[in-house]
Amino acid sequence: MTQPDVTIRGAGIFGLAIAHACARRGARVRVVDPGGPGAGASGGIVGALAPHTPENWNEKKAFQFDSLIMAGSFWDEVEHRSGRPSGYGRLGRLQPVDGDRALALADERAQGAARLWQGLACWQVIAADDAGDWAPLSPSGRLIRDTLSARLHPAQACAALAAAVTAQGGSIVPDAEPATGRPEVWATGHAGLLALSAETGRPVGTGVKGQAALLRLDRRGAPQLFAGGLHVVPHSDGTVAIGSTSERDYDDPAATDGQLDDVLARARAAVPALGGAPVIGRWAGVRPRARSRAPMLGPHPTRAGVFIANGGFKIGFGMAPKVAEVMADLVLDGRDVIPAGFRVEDNL
């Protein structure tokens, strides 16, 4: 059997996106995951690709901006190669403005977006009435609308990426021995962060549980909403996802409970249009959060020929196109363009 040029351990969003980026450059790719594509946190239901606020600009925000701009062409190519939908759509986002102070801040951020988003997207304040019935309640009667936010369906996106990888000659297997002398990328989620913490004796990261719900409500083509810390994301299949919790202490990583019921109640109170839409799915999973809160990318601190791509946390899908590009640069070409704050050593 022909040995792969690159082995990627972990078939979540980072692992699959890196496999796709390497395969499209001509590398023979093998992805190893006992659970299969999207078996962990990447197989969720929310899929909100939303930017950080356009202020206090730094390398993390610039990296995320680049990745969100890249996302349209990235997912177009994945869908073309795989013949499968990702659920991607850049339809923007609406969020309420609570009062005069929040309105002044929103106006300042609109000016920041005009400078920082390079004319490729905007952040603006609009009248709540202009949004129709699909909007969160806003005490000020105003909403923030940004045109950079996008959405996708996480499970569909992982399935499409997996199919794109195999269409380019790659393989996805449940287990495999290392290919001697060939590079590996470990994109192994929160379990990988805990293992690296144990190996180095330092807390490089952990897992944070999230719970989300899926409603039967057809608002395809509508923007996502963000209110009270909750994402409300209409999908192209006629469902709406609502999430999520952030739980550091939990007993069962896959169980949903009363905390999700509270999320649903808060969402319905904030967005009247959700009304009596029935809940058709409940999901829970553990997302990898690196100590730096940014994705953790680069060479493994103790293992030659091994690279790490982990810590996507809540922004992994939005970061994936750019993460895939810089990791392919590093692994295949030896070109290190990983920004400060994203490096493995920043978490040690």
What can you see in these coordinates?
The protein has 348 residues and is an alpha/beta fold. It has a domain of 200 residues: FAD/NAD(P)-binding domain. Helix content is 32%, strand content 23%. It has seven helices and 16 strands. Helix 1 crosses helix 7. The radius of gyration is 20 Å and the shape is globular. The model has no long low-confidence stretch (mean pLDDT 96). Keywords: Oxidoreductase.
Write a brief structural summary.
This protein has 7 helices and 16 strands.
Distance from N terminus to C terminus (CA atoms, Å) equals 38 Å
For the residues shown, what is the average pLDDT?
Answer: 96
**Helix/strand class:** alpha/beta
Q: Given the structure, what is the number of helices?
A: 7
Named CATH architecture of the domain at 6-91 and 149-205 and 291-347: 3-Layer(bba) Sandwich
CATH structural fold name of the domain at 6-91 and 149-205 and 291-347: FAD/NAD(P)-binding domain
Order of helices and strands: EHEEHEHEEEHEEHEEEEHEEEH
- The name of the CATH superfamily of the domain at 6-91 and 149-205 and 291-347 reads FAD/NAD(P)-binding domain
The main sheet comes to: 8 strands, mixed
Strand order of the largest sheet: 5-6-4-11-12-13-10-14
The parts where pLDDT drops under 50 for at least 5 residues are none
GO molecular function, one term: oxidoreductase activity
Protein name: FAD-dependent oxidoreductase
Organism: Meridianimarinicoccus roseus
Keywords: Oxidoreductase
